[in-house]
Design a protein that fits this description.
- By secondary structure, the chain is α/β, with parallel strands linked by helices.
- It has 13 helices and 8 strands.
- The chain has an 8-stranded parallel beta sheet with strand order 1-8-7-6-5-4-3-2.
- Strand 3, helix 8 and strand 4 form a beta-alpha-beta unit.
- Helix 12 packs parallel to helix 13.
- The chain binds zinc ion (ZN) (2 copies).
- One zinc ion (ZN) binds next to loops.
Length: 366
């Protein structure tokens, strides 16, 4: 176990104190809210990336110019880039979630690893995107905290799963092949974690874990960075169930997922995405029984419809989650794909006054 001191003891203690008192509210989807703006390629690029490459950066020895080969790279859909090119939009989304009742907001950094950014030829931006993503979330939290000083708001620095999986082959004809190694993932996550910490994250969350080996690489990297700076932040882990048999993509049940990561002693373990609240319930129930730490859950707004959208209303989703709370399953709750500030508002209202799950004192079986 990591025994380094907290990087910011006051905030870490405030978070622990809040968790002991009530169910904390995590924000909802970033992507769903960005979609509402119907942004164009030009919006994504802003002035700095107007030509499709970063005007402030070139590989050593390379000079950008007509025909240099980097112009015109598509950035539409690169939501994390908006932290640099449309920070107004990202800040406003954070503000809306905080106004809706979120205690914790997630940074706009889901794809800010060198692995995911390589798809946009912007892997050099890892540190900057993570730092700025955390800074925007921090500023939004600070602004609302100034109005309600007795209710601290926290920044969750998000480390996404990347599109590569370390424990499975993407090629059915070459089962031993891996598109990425543990060390490559760890190297990528180290740089992301450094940026999130520099930008002022209160917590780091390894999120939407579909491959436990990827999560282990992220957690290993986080520990390295804590050693580098001589201090640590609370860490949360949230997995995703990807098939009807109730397993992650790398084949684990929720229980196996917990036992393979519990040595990290995270602040919270949970599940998010892929399913709506109803279908996640049995798996959250398992975590609530086996995990001697806080349990989180941020489901999608139901299952995707025929158009890839999400239909579950704020009231319906909140009603399902009310039962989670009444059954003593959760300590933190929020929304993933398809959720909006309206969903978070409904969830926050319904959770008010409901007691948080009591963390069980389990005998050490390790
Ligand atoms: Zn160029
Ligand atoms: Zn999701």
């Amino acid at each position: 176990m990591n025994t380094l001191p907290w990087k910011n003891p006051q905030r870490a203690n405030a978070l622990h104190a809040a968790l002991a008192q009530r169910i904390l509210i995590i924000d909802g989807a970033m992507g769903t809210m960005i979609q509402r703006h119907e942004l164009t390629e030009a919006d994504y690029r802003g002035t700095r990336f107007a030509n499709g490459f970063d005007a402030l950066f070139a590989q050593e020895g390379h000079h950008h110019g007509p025909g240099c080969g980097c112009e015109g790279h598509d950035q539409r859909g690169n939501n994390d880039l908006l932290s640099l090119t449309r920070p107004d939009i990202i800040s406003e989304i954070h503000r809306q979630y905080l106004q809706a009742g979120a205690d914790l907001v997630e940074t706009n950094t889901f794809n800010s690893t060198s692995i995911s950014l390589a798809d946009y030829r912007l892997q050099h931006l890892v540190r900057e995107l993570n730092r700025e993503g955390a800074r925007l979330a921090r500023a939004a939290c600070d602004a609302i905290e100034a109005q309600t000083p007795t209710q601290p708001r926290f920044v969750i620095g998000v480390l996404g799963p990347t599109s590569r999986t370390a424990s499975l082959s993407p090629d059915v004809n070459r089962p031993g092949f891996r598109a990425i190694t543990f060390n490559e993932l760890a190297e990528a996550y180290r740089e992301s974690a450094r940026g999130l910490i520099e930008g002022g994250a209160d917590v780091l969350m390894v999120e939407t874990v579909f491959d436990t080996l990827n999560a282990k690489a992220a957690l290993f990297a986080i520990d390295d960075v804590f050693d580098e700076i001589g201090a640590r932040l609370p860490v949360m882990i949230s997995g995703t169930i990807t098939d009807a048999s109730g397993r992650t993509l790398s084949g684990q049940t929720a229980e196996a997922f917990w036992y393979s990561l519990r040595h990290v002693q995270p602040l919270a373990i949970g599940l998010n995405c892929a399913l709506g609240a109803k279908d996640l319930r049995q798996h959250v129930d398992v975590l609530a029984q086996v995990a001697d730490t806080y349990v989180s859950c941020h489901p999608n707004a139901g299952l995707p419809n025929a158009f890839g959208g999400y239909d579950e209303t704020p009231e319906d989703m909140a009603e399902v989650l009310r039962e989670f709370a009444q059954s003593g399953l959760i300590n933190l709750v929020g929304g993933c794909c398809g959720t909006t500030p309206e969903h978070i508002h409904a969830i926050a209202n319904i959770m008010r006054g409901l007691p948080p799950r009591v963390v069980p004192q389990l005998e050490d079986v390790a």
